[in-house]
């Protein structure tokens, strides 16, 4: 199954919402705002626990790289997604709409060669070492560029950039999701 199968993904989020209802985690629209915050806080504890289990499974797989160990990594990864889905359910987040907006915004970090060269120059003034990554967009077949951090580093203002991190193009606008209804 591919991440690209948005209908399947949307159905999965719906199933996760149903699961949460069945275990007594009501949707945000059934709670008062202070109850939503408490529910989100409780869900964050579950997410933290699942992420720790994923870290442990990864460590065990690194030490013993067998298919059985990797199966545990897959299971723990999916547990993280389920608890994240529970958070979305409890907080009233429209995962399909918001994920689509975030994905589209992330895709805007791919740029023309001209903008990529301008972006490299912009990061050079911040003393950030970069490299260009040329790729072909599988949806359009067009060549695009991504500017990435060449090493783990900090810019002149102290902002951290991990090696390989995709950097924002010059003039990039942060995503502004619409405010939820009250």
| Domain tally | 2
Task: Identify the CATH class of the largest domain.
Answer: Mainly Alpha
Structural class, from helix and strand content? mainly alpha
**What Rg is obtained from the alpha carbons, in whole angstroms?**
20 Å
Order of helices and strands: HHHHHEEEE
| Tally of DSSP helical segments | 5
The percent range for strand residues is 5-15%
Q: What spatial form do the alpha-carbon principal axes imply?
A: globular
Low-confidence stretches: none
Number of strands: 4
Q: Could you give me the name of the CATH homologous superfamily of the largest domain?
A: putative ntp pyrophosphohydrolase like domain
* Helical content band: 40-55%
What's the story with the biggest beta sheet?
Answer: 2 strands, antiparallel
Could you tell me how far the N terminus lies from the C terminus, measured between alpha carbons in angstroms? 37 Å
In words, what does this structure look like?
This protein has two domains: 6-103, putative ntp pyrophosphohydrolase like domain (putative ntp pyrophosphohydrolase like fold, Orthogonal Bundle); 110-161, no CATH class. Helix 1 (6-22) crosses helix 3 (67-91). It has five helices and four strands. The strands form two sheets. Strands 1-2 form a two-stranded antiparallel ribbon. A two-stranded antiparallel ribbon has the order 3-4. The longest helix is centred in the first third of the chain and has 31 residues, at 33-63. The chain is 54% helix and 10% strand. It is mainly alpha-helical and 182 residues long. The model has no long low-confidence stretch (mean pLDDT 89). It has helices at residues 6-22, 33-63, 67-91, 95-107, 113-125, and strands at 130-136, 143-149, 153-154, 160-161.
